[in-house]
């Protein structure tokens, strides 16, 4: 299952889930591609948090407001506000447990 890419404007203007995750990436980042693939596997395995992806090059407001320091970055969002930011995409299992714990 592919993770849907959204623009900053689309993400900001839609109805927010109580808990969700946003994956920030850049198209030429190899580590981002690996992290995205791991997130897709974690999502397919049943991590119960909606995940969106946003190209950080076109998200200056979120990048600055949420203080995203580098990519890849997975931001766990609660009620529209960042609750936790992960920069190290260690493994599918780690991401799965992180998302499962955050969902509950």
Automatic annotation (TrEMBL):
Gene3D superfamilies membership: Glutaredoxin
Domain of life: Bacteria
Pfam family, one: Thioredoxin
Domain Thioredoxin stretches: 22-97
Full protein name: Thioredoxin
Source organism of this protein record: Paenibacillus glycinis
Source taxonomy: Bacteria, Bacillati, Bacillota, Bacilli, Bacillales
């Amino acid at each position: 299952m592919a993770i849907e890419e959204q623009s900053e404007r689309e993400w900001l203007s839609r109805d927010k889930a109580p808990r969700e995750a946003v994956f920030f990436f850049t198209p030429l980042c190899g580590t981002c591609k690996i992290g995205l693939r791991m997130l897709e596997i974690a999502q397919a395995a049943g991590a119960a948090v909606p995940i969106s992806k946003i190209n950080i090059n076109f998200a200056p407001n979120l990048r600055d407001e949420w203080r995203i320091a580098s990519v890849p970055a997975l931001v766990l969002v609660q009620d529209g506000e960042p609750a936790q930011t992960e920069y190290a995409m260690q493994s599918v299992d780690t991401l799965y447990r992180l998302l499962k714990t955050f969902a509950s």
